[in-house]
Write a structure and sequence with these properties.
This protein is an alpha/beta fold and 381 residues long. It contains 16 helices and twelve strands. The strands form two sheets. Strands 1-2-6-5-4-3-7-8-9 form a nine-stranded mixed beta sheet, sandwiched between helices. A three-stranded antiparallel beta sheet has the order 10-12-11.
Length: 381
Amino acid sequence: MSEERRGEARAGFRLDPEQRLAWLRLIRSENVGPVTFRALINRYGSASRALEELPELARKGGARGAVRIPTRQEAEREMAVAEGLGARFVAMGEPGYPAHLRALEGPPPLIAVRGGEGVFLRPMVAVVGARNASIAGRKMAGWIAREAGQAGYVVVSGLARGIDAAAHEAALDAGTIAVLAGGLDKLYPPENAGLHDRIIDTGGAVISEMPFGWDARARDFPRRNRIVSGLSLAVVLVEAAARSGSLHTARFALEQGREVLAVPGSPLDPRSEGANRLIRDGATLICHPNDVIEALAALVGREPPTMEAGEPERGAGGLEIEPGDNERLQVIEALGPTPVAIDEIVRATGVSAAALQLMLLELELAGRLERHRGGKVSLVM
C-alpha cells in the first residue's frame, strides 16, 4: 500500500503540497468524476501514478483522441486563484472534511472552501425550497433556521433566491454553510453577493467541488444538491413545486439515508405541491421548529450511513490484471444505453469483478461510459 493510501486510512491524514496538486490535476482531468477518482486511487495507490496511467487507460477504452489532463502549471494557477481568494482545498479524509459527506457514494475528492473550519465539526441540517417563495414560506424557513442554529445545528443550503437565502440569513449568528453549483469565484445568483460575504464574515463557510472560473450550468445544480443533502443529518423542505430542484435534494437525501422533513402548504398553491407529496409519501410533517429539533436530536451521534463503494477487488496479480479481448467484447455487448448494475454485468458475462472495474475505468476515461446513481452504468451511444 502506498504512503498516500496508508495516509488516507489514518484518521486526520494530510496531503503534502505535491499530493494535493496531483489530486487536483486528477479530479480536473477529462472524464474523471468522484467515483472514477476513487477507483483510480484504489488501483494505482496515488494520484500521481494514476495520472501517468490515464492516457493508456483511455486508449484501451477506445478513446479517439488524447485524454485532457491539466498541466502542472494549470493546477498551480487554480491553487493560486484559491489562495488569492482566501480559499483552501480540503481532501476527503483530511481534518475539516465533513464526515457525513465522506460517507456518500462517490464523495467529492476535493472541496474548495472559504470561511471558518468550526462549522464543519458540528451537526448540520439542510433547509431548502422554492426560489419564488412566498412571504410566509420565507418566514417559516427563517424561523426554522434560526431555532436550529440556536439549538447548535449548522444550517446548510444552496445560496439561491427565496427559501435558501432566508435560511442562510436567519442562521448567520449560529453559522451556516452555502454550497455553490459553480466555482467559488463564480457566485450565482449575483444579487446574493452581500449574503455570501456575511456568511464568511460571521464564521460560516462557502464550498464547491467545481473548478475556479466555472460558471454553473443547469446540470451542475443537482451535483450541488447532492452535497447539500450529503452534509446534513436531515433535509427540511419549505415550499417546492412539483418539478422543483429542491425535490432533487430530497431524493438525494432519501438515497443517502438522510431524514426528509417537509412543511405542508395550501393545496391551492403550486409551490406547496412538492412538499405535500413528500409528506403523503412518508416525509415527516413539520409545523414548528421544535419538530425539526426533535427529529434531529434522534440522529445526532449516529454514524453516517456508509454508501461509498469499497476498494475494487483484485486478483492475485493486483495491478497486473489485464482483461483479454474476449472479455472486453463480452462487456461491451452486455452494456447499452439503459443503466445496469455492475453486479448484473459480472453475473451475465462471468468476467471477474476486478477485470470489470478496470474495463469500466477504461471506457469511462474514453468518454464511452456514463455512471448513474446506485452504482449503475450505461454505454454512451
